Amino acid sequence: LDAARAMTTTELIRQYHGLSAHETPTLSQRRAMERYLSELTGQDSSDGELNILACIDGHPPRYYLRDRQLTQRFLDRRTALNLRFAADALRGVLGRTDQLNLGALEGSAAHVIAKDPEAKRISERVRLASDGYGRLAPDIKPECLAAAMDAVTRNRRLCFDYVSSKGQASSLERTILGLVGKDSTLYLVAVEGLSDTPHHFALHRVRSAAVSHQPAQERVGFDLNQYIIDTNQFSHPLYENSRPIRLVLRIDPVYIYHFRELRLSEQQIIEEPTADDPWYRLSASVPNTYMLPPFLWSMCPGIEVLEPKGIRDHFVDGVRRLAMFYLKQP
Questions:
Q1: What distance in Å separates the CA atoms of residue 210 and residue 174, rounded to the nearest whole number?
Q2: What pLDDT does residue 73 have?
Q3: Strands across the sheet with 169-182, in order?
Q4: Which of 102, 193, 204, 282 has the fewest CB atoms within 10 Å distance of its CB?
């Protein structure tokens, strides 16, 4: 797809027919290839665009594909829009998409969209926004991201220096099973050996990284999508092998829409207020993860945790500490 890798007629014939470097193309093969090349080269085509095949004059002449003309010729409106939004989503996770070599494809998609009024309106009026508190994304060293992507592309292990959230430094070599973006953080899902439990390494905590000479250890049957589901969308359980818990809440009517519009589980039940209690009562079976208490705290003072006792006790202790902070003058 570029002039640096242009090929002669003989090279094209050998590649197309699977001939070795020592085999000579037949006369019929050469005539057929020359006819195709004649049809696909030139500066003018029926729609006014450059043809998809370019010829470099010489002895012998060499040919290469114009990538933009190639993609524009076969890129329809729907595909162009999907490519545009996919690139935006990946950019939100990776911060950059040059590792995926999307530049030329994005340019072709933009060209197709610009010529189609309906596609242009959709492109201008649909956006993807992250769900968070508006905090800035952590800084990921470009060279570390490049090394991680290179390790995945080449199916090699990754050597990296890592500093945990507690400040513990270590030098590791791991097989990357996947890269997952969650809440503006990009994680490496990696294992040391085939039987190990996958661990998550935040890429912004990687201080340096290099592709290992060792091949990655393939984990047959590993499904990254299913793994994300099984880990409750990357929300770590509070305890190993912990089971879902029954969460019971009292909810202020002002806050109830949060739980009606975004349910906690398929089995969520909401009981209406009564004459004795003007608040709603909710019960649901939910995973017992590290993310559950912060989520519930974000709803204070519009909820009361009734069950389970462990989470209620956590809130009792937290409210007492808050009272110590805020009932005194600063």
A1: 11
A2: 64
A3: 199-202, 185-191, 169-182, 156-163, 206-215
A4: 193
Report the C-alpha gap between 95 and 67 in whole angstroms: 25
What are the two backbone dihedrals, phi and then psi, of residue 24, each rounded to the nearest 5 degrees? -100, 125
CB 250 within 8 A of CB 303: yes
CA dihedral 61→65→69→73, nearest 10 degrees, is 120
Vertex 292: Cα angle to 291 and 296 (nearest 5): 120
pLDDT digits (tens, 9 = 90+) for 91-131: 767 766 566 666 667 777 888 888 889 999 999 998 877 66
Enter the pTM of the model: 0.69
* Cβ atoms of 285 and 267 closer than 8 Å: yes
Residues shown for the chain: 330
Q: In 10 A of CB 139, how many CB atoms?
A: 8
Beta bridge pairs of residue 199: 190
Cβ count near 287 (within 10 Å): 19
DSSP string covering 248-274: EEEE-TTTHHHHHHS-S-TT-EEEPP-
Instruction: Report the number of secondary-structure helices (H) and strands (E) in the chain.
Output: 11, 12
Contact 112, 76 (CB under 8 A): yes
Query: d(Cα 330, Cα 325) in Å, to the nearest integer?
Result: 8
Question: What pLDDT is attached to residue 61?
Answer: 85
Quick one: pLDDT at residue 132?
A: 60
Q: What is the pLDDT of residue 273?
A: 95
Q: How far is CA 20 from CA 9, 11, 33, 194, in A?
A: 14, 10, 17, 39
Mean pLDDT of the chain: 85
